[in-house]
Structure formats: C-alpha cells, structure tokens
Amino acid sequence: MSDLITCENLSLGYEGRVILSGLSFKLEKGDHLYVVGENGSGKSTLMKTILGLRQPYSGTVTLHDLKRSEIGYLPQQTAVQKDFPANCEEVILSGTLMRFPFSPFYRKEQRELAEKYMEMMHITHLRRQSYRELSGGQQQRVLLARAFCAAQKLLVLDEPVTGLDAATTADLYDAIAKANKEGMTVMMISHDIQAALRYAGHILSLDETFFFGTRKEYTEYANRKAGSSDE
Fold it and tell me: Angle 226-170-195 (CA atoms, 0-180°, nearest 5)?
C-alpha cells in the first residue's frame, strides 16, 4: 500500500487552546483506521484538520494523490440535520455533486451511484420518504449512503453508530467493512474498542500518550498499559 495522508508533528486545538501536540502518523491507501480516545482528546479536531475545515497550530498534513473533494465525510448529526426537508433519495444524490460539479441536472451515473448505495444500505424502499420522518437508524443509513456517494478515495466517519441499536450498528459496521474490502480507505472515530479490534487495519489512540499501530500492536500496548496501572 502507498501513503494517502501523512501527518507530521501536528499541534491542534481551537479557540487558542492546544488539545494535542506532536502527533505524527500515516494513512495508507486501502487501510481501515480507527481513531480512539476519550472525549476532548482531539479526535474530531483531527478529522476537521485533515478535511481542511481547521488549520493546525503547527505541523503539516500532506495529501498524496488525494483531493479533499474525493473524501466522503459523515459528521455527527446535529438537530438541524435531523430535520432536513428532503426525501431520502434527494439527500443521497446530493453526495454525488462533488463528482459532477458542473452538471445542472442529475446524470444517469449519479442516479446509478445513489441506487447502488441505497441497495447496499437496505433503504431502497425509503427513497420517497421524508428524511425528517425516519428513525435515527434509518437516517444514519441514508447519511452513510450519501457519504459513500461522495467518497471516491477516502471515507471519513465521526462516531457513525452512536445511539443506534445493536442490529443496526452491526449492519453499518459490516457495510463499512465491505466497502473497505472493495478498496475504499476508511478513517473512523469510535469509542468502540471491540469493533476496532475486529475491523481496523490500524488504530490511532489519542489518550494520554499517542499510539499508532496495527490491531495486534494495539492489543500489546493496551495490555502493557493495563499491567503498569495495576502495579
């Protein structure tokens, strides 16, 4: 695999407050990276910096053969997003706009892409239903389908299964893993360590001390950390 993103000696924060510094890691093409850590550790700030929505206080983020327009992003939902006035298909189709920025109407290719991911997320039957009338799990399926439509090389997900039931959570994890196996690079913020140990290629931990490595290396790191805390 070759590098897709390189972060070197990053110092990040907001409103003049540094929340992490000295962070370096690489994301390779085809990887499935989980970013874990406590609330306030800088996970979402890191994502927004990679997406170009925030600037680092110091350090560099280098994109290799990757444009930010080729990234599909699923942030945590806000109350405004949950009340979005459109039907499901319209929401999903909007994810294709960066691929076809100069088209005044949706093309056949855009509709086929939306159809593909509606089928993948098992929501084809909801295409004409108002987004605001859906359950939380259904809305998340719609937003994930939209992110898939936008993602040409990288899918960035911020806590995509928060608040969902176990069956829906498992279904979404499997859909993300399937896309990764088909070649999509995935970077996901999660509190679910068990899911990370099942699906991740690499894990980046932002707790106390930084850790970046494979699932096996993370398990060894966590065991050493637990052992030292017991002494």
Answer: 20
